[in-house]
Amino acid sequence: MIIDAHAHVWPDHIAPRILATRPAGLDPQADGTLDGLRRTMDAAGIDMALTLSIAGVPQHVARTNEFIGFCKLIGAEPYLAANVGSGSPTEMRDWMEYCNFPSGSSLSNERAANGSPEPFRVRYWGVGNELWGCGGNYKAEAAAAEFRHFATFARQFGNVQPYLVACGPNGNNAQWTKGFMDTLVGNRQPNGYSMHYYSNGNLPPLQYTPDAMYTQLNSFPRVEQAIIDQSALLDGYDPNHRIGLFLDEWGVWDKMTSDDEKNNGRLWQQGPYAARWRRAWD
After folding, report:
1. In whole angstroms, how large is the CA radius of gyration of the chain?
2. Burial per residue of 187-198, b for 16 or more beta-carbon CB atoms within 10 angstroms, e otherwise
3. 92 with 82: CB under 8 angstroms?
4. Residues 36-70: tens digit of each pLDDT
5. Cα atoms found within 13 Å of the Cα of residue 268, Cβ hemisphere only
6. Who's near 49: CB < 8 A, 6+ residues apart?
7. Is the dihedral of CA 146, 152, 156, 162 positive or negative?
8. Positions marked active-site
9. Three-class DSSP category at 262
10. What does the pLDDT look like over 119-154, one tens digit per residue?
11. Residue 73's closest CA among 57, 89, 84, 62?
């Protein structure tokens, strides 16, 4: 099982400028650099990180080579997600070739021309993201059919067998998991199964009260119960426990004002929550 906690990290020359724009009262817990992340991980006894890119607008998207280079710098295993909602199996297959084919193909040559002659050996591949919502507004059965379709073309390049992570539920949605897994009975099973869990806040990020904070922190037992319930559902289809459950998004959506979103971006809903939880943990 892989459980994700969010942290924002930037290249050394960018981190100071980013932190300088943070509003008063929201003090950073580290310096925002790769070395700062490593120190935090060491202090917490964390020896491995799984790094995902998040893009809200086009200028946030770095080239694949740059993202993989970032993962290497911090010792993280990259986890890439194919676009199912508006993409195609061909796009996913080509991305896999670009990342993992050793040399001699047009796409591996393009990777080399971009500065990375050695293959990236990316193992973890998400087949879509939040297909129940922004990833396409699918029903579970249709999402499973898309997984089956995309998985057909998820080829091994070099000696890297792709570990395919299917799109699981929003929260502890048993109906989604049953519909998804029922559809795949007798077909290829996913290697992993992704669930997301968010607790909604009813106040803006910097206007929380002790009672509101307590309510948010008190939601954590429900996250644990969701993991237990979803694991049990998967075990019913996979008695040998070969499918890994990924909680690869976990956070809070605080109430968002239009000014906050304009000035700080959509993920501002989660940042102060992470800082509050870090303070409570300390």
Report:
1. 20
2. eebbbbbbbbbb
3. yes
4. 877 877 887 777 665 554 443 333 334 888 899 99
5. 21
6. 37, 41, 74, 75, 76, 77
7. positive
8. 130, 249
9. helix
10. 999 999 999 999 999 999 999 999 999 999 999 999
11. 62
Amino acid identity, position 173: N
Contacts of 202 (CB under 8 A, 6+ apart): 212, 255
- Can you read off the two tokens belonging to residue 189? 């099973």
CA quadruple 204, 205, 208, 210: dihedral, nearest 10:
150
Residue with tokens 């998985």: 151
Instruction: Supply 71's token pair.
Output: 């993962």
| 231-282 pLDDT per residue, tens | 999 999 999 999 999 998 887 777 777 777 777 666 655 655 555 444 444 4
Domains of the chain with CATH codes? 74-281 (3.20.20.80)
Name the H helices within the chain: 15-20, 34-44, 64-74, 89-100, 106-113, 140-152, 174-184, 210-217, 220-237, 258-264, 271-281
DSSP sequence for 90-134: HHHHHHHHHHH--SSSHHHHHHHHTT--S-----EEEE-S-TTTT
- What token pair was written down for 275? 């800082």
